[in-house]
Design brief:
The complex is a heterodimer. Chain A is α/β, with parallel strands linked by helices. Chain A has 13 helices and nine strands. Chain B folds into four domains: about 110 residues, Alpha-Beta Complex (Sulfite Reductase Hemoprotein, domain 2); about 140 residues, Sulfite Reductase Hemoprotein, domain 1 (2-Layer Sandwich), CATH 3.30.413.10; about 110 residues, Sulfite Reductase Hemoprotein, domain 2 (Alpha-Beta Complex), CATH 3.90.480.20; about 170 residues, Sulfite Reductase Hemoprotein, domain 1 (2-Layer Sandwich). By secondary structure, chain B is α+β, with helices and mostly antiparallel strands. Classes of the chains: A alpha/beta, B alpha+beta.
């Protein structure tokens, strides 16, 4: 008990409302303490059936598909309210793929103004296999009040990207795998596949020092503005978004509708046609 | 050292886990590489200088796209540890395309790595003791060793420690950092296996008067003009191995043609100078090397002996190599697929009770997940605890007990690695071709995969009369696919009819590897999309023509000598009978033939400056 208090106290991370202020990633120990103190909302983005089977204690279910079906920021805020999330409450999101789905949900929360959101450092399976607590009971919380405060600074739409790709100080990152990138991508985009910053053996993202080095190798400074996109729903690029934040880049935007929309709008693309690189894959 | 009772349980505890791995990689090189990339990007380093530097560190430019590299990982003697396979799996996922490639010189390649990430790949490799250093460039390339060294019943001793010692001596050695061109050293196990006649230095283990040594062949190599290596002397004792190698390299360094890129390999030097003269020079240079090499230098040449037989708790050796057509009663999988796989992918080693298993890859490609499962399989089943890559672009896992074969097969099958045919004509070799090489004209890589799939589908691998034949495919005349040492070889080019171009291969017959290897000879041209039909036609004709028990390989040899027994007597005859299937029709008649494999677009030969020379 004392040790837990120390963990919380040591970090000096309480905001004005005396809520614990999360950073980009939340580690398992911190989350367990916050759960025990009942001062966090845990959000499970897996399918409902998976949630009903078992989940992290006190978690509420919000399947990604359900969130993506919402069309306006105010609908998303309603969603937050129905999950009992108030303005400054710490929210930790997890999934059971490799963090991309959780990232997309977490980003959406931050987009509508819920800044105090973090990703759990590991997936559900990793949590369970570490022997940590799980429960079956469905959790519900009384409706809360949440204000709407859209953070446009973390979002990019197609027209923004169209202009940005011509600007030297703005960097466009394609988060898809290499072969997909080579096949076609937004002109001027650089490829940082999600596999480069994720799939990190027991956690969803690599160490911040490593990510920083990868970014630095590419000549991207923490002062740059970076826009990331992927194939369709902004999940892979969501994970990359958080990787970049973890590496200390302050200005990161997500082009959430991604390449699917870009193509559908008939916008220009770059294709590398001079090599049969797909034939190198053993899939 | 951990000893285990192999006969008790079927899971091997890894006796060799304490094997100390030489650390081939150096961490500081990864940082220097990262810095150089930055300088290059800032325009502070010229393209030429940067290219020379990056090649020295094993990063080839990817086809027509200089932002990407193929990273070539040296696997000295082709011997690889499970943790190294695990690491390569992770690196391929993070920085490449999620698959890795086994090359014809026992390297492992990661394709389409962004230039900025090459230093990260190098960093990961250093962690597991691997390196990319001098895998490319004008240096001593990966030193090959027969994947059967140590288990071959015909070998007189295991060449592996010698191959490793040579590799260790020359890597980063100032004397070979800037040779006129690349330099290749290949060790064999015996006269049958190994690629000794097509290397700058080829070595076959030999024993004379109770002393170990080698038959050393110099000046071989494949490419635009190919030559077979010449025997230096009757017998080169092991204590002259280093001095002979040093002498040869020094001569090459001094006399090789640095002006003419098309003629700067050592084989051209030997050819121009004449073998007699070159031979005398090597022997003379060797004496000088022996007299002038400091003891401290010579001590850098360190032959760590192969693990003694007792350490592996093996019973006495059987001196015959017995194939495994039927296994004993303890084996309990009953399936035709398993039986077929046993027949084409498993051989008995000279060490009684132990077997070597070949994993058939498609043109050497393997996914990250497959690599991880393979690593686990090696840990569980190989008493040796390592695997070898083979020049046929497959893996060989040795020292496996008979009891474990069914489970081994099941594990392979669960991950899609249980294709049969590794030791047969079906296991076609293909270089990268247009998937990633600047010099490629055709998609040899894909064609090799298509050939293998087709032959396996039709069960050609189960036909023992075809077993000792090989098919090798290159995407251009430079022979990275080693088409000249194949029974049936192909190299890529283009044909033109009117204004249309078609991908076309030149077909050769009659090549062979081993100590008495020969180069194949050109027969005729075959449209790319007709290669598979042509192969079947050749097999069909052979079946009609054969008179006794001669294999396809033997039959082709006879034809090449003009000594065919049936109605097909010589090359002219075979050309005539193959003409219908190899003819190139017009675009209207068959537009398919005017596109290559792997693409819908009309074929055109697109090449750029090769990276094979620094």
């Amino acid at each position: 008990m004392e040790m837990e208090n120390n963990i919380i106290a040591r970090s000096n991370r309480y905001n004005d409302n005396n809520n614990f202020q999360l950073s980009v990633i939340c580690d398992a120990d911190t989350l367990r303490t916050l759960i025990r103190k009942k001062i966090v909302r845990v959000v499970d983005v897996r399918k409902v059936q998976e949630y009903e089977r078992e989940h992290i204690p006190t978690a509420v279910s919000l399947p990604l598909a359900q969130l993506l079906a919402k069309n306006t920021p105010s609908e998303i805020v309603e969603c937050l309210e129905s999950l009992g999330i108030s303005d400054k409450m710490p929210v930790v999101v997890y999934d059971d793929t490799f963090g991309a789905l959780a990232a997309r949900v977490a980003w959406t929360f931050q987009y509508v103004g819920h800044d105090n959101t973090a990703l759990l450092e590991m997936t559900f399976s990793q949590w369970k296999n570490s022997g940590l607590e799980i429960e079956k009971k469905i959790n519900a919380f009384p409706k809360a009040q949440h204000s709407l405060n859209v953070n446009h600074g973390i979002h990019a739409d197609a027209s923004y990207v169209e202009i940005a790709k011509e600007q030297p100080n703005k960097i466009l990152i394609d988060s898809r795998e290499r072969l997909n990138f080579l096949t076609e991508h937004i002109p001027g985009a650089k490829n940082i596949p999600y596999t480069m910053i994720g799939l990190a053996n027991g956690s969803i993202l690599r160490d911040s020092k490593e990510i920083k080095r990868l970014i630095d190798n590419r000549g991207i400074s923490t002062d740059s503005e970076v826009i990331t996109y992927c194939g369709s729903a902004g999940t892979l690029s969501g994970l990359t978004y958080y990787a970049l934040k973890l590496a200390g880049i302050k200005n990161v935007k997500l082009y959430s509708r991604s390449f699917k929309e870009w193509k559908a709008l008939g916008k220009p693309k770059e294709e590398f046609k001079d090599a049969n690189y797909w034939d190198l894959s053993a899939e | 050292m951990k000893k285990s009772n192999i006969h008790a349980s079927s899971k091997q505890s890894n006796i060799s886990s304490q094997k100390s791995t030489h650390k081939w990689g150096r961490e500081e090189e990864t940082e220097i590489f990262a810095q150089k990339v930055k300088l290059f990007r800032q325009g502070k380093l010229s393209e030429d200088d940067f290219r020379r530097f990056r090649l020295q560190h094993g990063a080839y430019g990817s086809r027509l796209h200089m932002n990407y590299s193929m990273v070539r990982i040296k696997i000295p003697s082709g011997e690889i540890m499970p943790e190294q396979l695990d690491k390569i799996a992770s690196l391929s996922e993070a920085f490449s395309i999620g698959s890795a490639h086994v090359s014809t010189r026992q390297n492992i390649q990661l394709h389409w790595v962004q230039l900025e990430d090459v230093s990260e790949v190098m960093r990961g490799l250093v962690e597991v003791g691997l390196t990319t250093r001098e895998a490319c460039g004008n240096t001593v390339r990966n030193v090959m060793c027969s994947h059967l060294a140590g288990i071959c019943p015909d070998e007189v001793f295991d060449a592996t420690p010698y191959a490793k010692a040579i590799a260790q001596f020359f890597i980063r050695n100032p004397m070979c950092q800037n040779l006129p061109r690349k330099f290749k050293i290949n060790f064999a196990c015996c006269h049958k296996h190994g690629l000794v006649r097509i290397a700058d230095i080829g070595l076959v283990p030999s024993i004379k008067d109770g002393m170990r040594g080698f038959k050393v062949y110099l000046g071989g190599g494949l490419g635009a003009a190919s030559f077979i290596g010449h025997l230096l002397e009757d017998f080169t004792p092991e204590n002259k191995l280093l001095s002979t190698s040093m002498a040869t390299i020094r001569l090459f360094d001094r006399h090789g043609n640095r002006e003419n890129m098309a003629r700067n390999r050592m084989r051209y030097l030997v050819h121009e100078m004449g073998w007699d003269k070159f031979q005398r020079m090597v022997l003379k240079e060797r004496s000088i090397v022996e007299m002038t090499t400091a003891a401290s230098t010579a001590r850098l040449f360190d032959i760590k002996p192969a693990k003694e037989e007792d350490d592996r708790q093996l019973s006495k050796k059987a001196h015959r190599m017995i194939k495994v057509p039927i296994l004993n009663e303890r084996v309990n999988i009953e399936s035709p697929a398993y039986e077929r796989w046993l027949h084409t992918n498993v051989i008995a080693q000279k060490q009684e009770g132990h077997f070597t298993i070949f994993v058939t890859l498609e043109a050497g490609d393997i996914t990250a997940n497959q690599l991880r499962v393979l690593a686990g399989i090696i840990r569980d089943f190989s008493a040796e605890g390592t695997a070898r890559n083979t020049p046929h672009q497959n893996f060989a896992i040795r020292y496996v007990k008979a009891n474990d074969l069914p489970e081994f097969y099941s594990k392979l099958a669960s991950i899609g690695l249980a294709n049969s045919g590794a030791l047969t004509i079906a296991s076609a070799v293909g270089c990268s071709g247009t998937t990633s090489c600047n010099l490629a004209i055709t998609n040899s890589h894909r064609l090799a995969k298509e050939v293998q799939r087709n032959l396996l589908e039709l069960g050609i691998d189960t036909d023992d009369s075809l077993r000792d034949s090989t098919i090798k495919i290159s995407g251009c005349p430079n022979s990275c696919g080693q088409h000249e040492i194949a029974t049936i070889g192909f190299f890529g080019g283009a044909s033109r009819i009117g204004s249309a171009m078609a991908p076309t291969y030149t077909m050769l017959f009659g090549g062979s590897a081993g100590e008495h290897g020969e180069l194949g000879r050109t027969i005729m041209r075959v449209p790319a999309k007709r290669v598979i039909d042509t192969i079947h036609k050749i097999i069909e004709i052979y079946k009609q023509e054969k008179r006794g028990s001669e294999t396809l390989n033997q039959w082709i040899d006879m034809i090449m000598k003009g000594e065919g027994i049936g109605s097909i007597k010589d090359i002219e005859n075979i050309k005539a009978i193959l003409t219908p299937v190899t003819q190139l029709p017009s675009t209207d008649q068959d537009p398919e033939l005017y596109t290559d494999y792997g693409t819908d677009t009309k074929f055109s030969a697109k090449t750029a400056r090769g990276e094979c020379a620094a």
